[in-house]
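REQUEST FORM: STRUCTURE PREDICTION
Request ID: SP-0412
Submitted by: Lab K.M.
Chain count: 1
Length (residues): 300
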Amino acid sequence: MLAPMFRRNVRLDTGQVRDLRGRAGGLGGGRAMAVGGGGIGTVILFVLLALTGNLGGGSTGGFEDLTNTRIGEQDQGGAELSQTCRTGADANEREDCRIVGYVNSIQAYWEDAFAAAGERYQPADTTFFSGQVETGCGVASSAVGPFYCPADALIYIDLGFFDQLQSQFGASGGPLSQAYVIAHEYGHHVQNLTGTLGRGGQPAAGAGGEAVQLELQADCYAGAWAGNAVETGYLQQLTQSDIASALDAAAAVGDDRIQQRAQGQVDPHTWTHGSSAQRQEWFLTGYQSGDPGQCDTGAG
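STATUS: Completed
RESULT:
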């Protein structure tokens, strides 16, 4: 069981999560490119989707101007979460409630960050699913791991991924490793809102390519949230152990480590998320500065 992270009496907003576990659901249509979260799997989504046609095959046609748009309307499945995930105490006891709490904290941070820049943040729901889900980017299975779909501006995750993160990717787990994954996906949502995603078509792979730059920027944005997480009012003071667990998760999903595990060799020409060292470096850049303005990886 993870150590308590949340202030016990803080109220959770389950309206930011759509719970489709155990049912078919999601938004249909679309051929937009989905954005992979943590370097998930032995092949990366930017490349995998283009080759297989899953989640829309890589077209940027699904990108849209999100200004003044209500994103991620609540699904009726969230009503069940609302009965079990009410406070930070619930988040400290239940995994699904804990992810709700992270979503709430991350979006509270970005709402303040956008406001400080004179902009308005558009919230995006996170969708819990199991097995398979229909999205604005097409049909996805749990095998693709957590991802962000820009066509419907929703984050999708099968919570079983967190077990996989330890058993398959070798992460040690810990209180902030799950939050890192969720915050990274919201980093892609921020990129979508600011227009960074979709510039120039499908991003090029390779160690110096735009795909890596986008992913490292999302890591940095995750770190910026972590640097301000306590101020959102949801989390207790983070410890060095908490940050270490996030860094461990970032390293576990580095392209070099995944390739070494899967094929016994490393090929930087095919990277789409960055090396373990790069992912840790950019998370720390965001965390130590607490400033998303410091997350200029060259993306876009």
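NOTES: Residues 14-294 form one domain.
Reviewed by: T.R.
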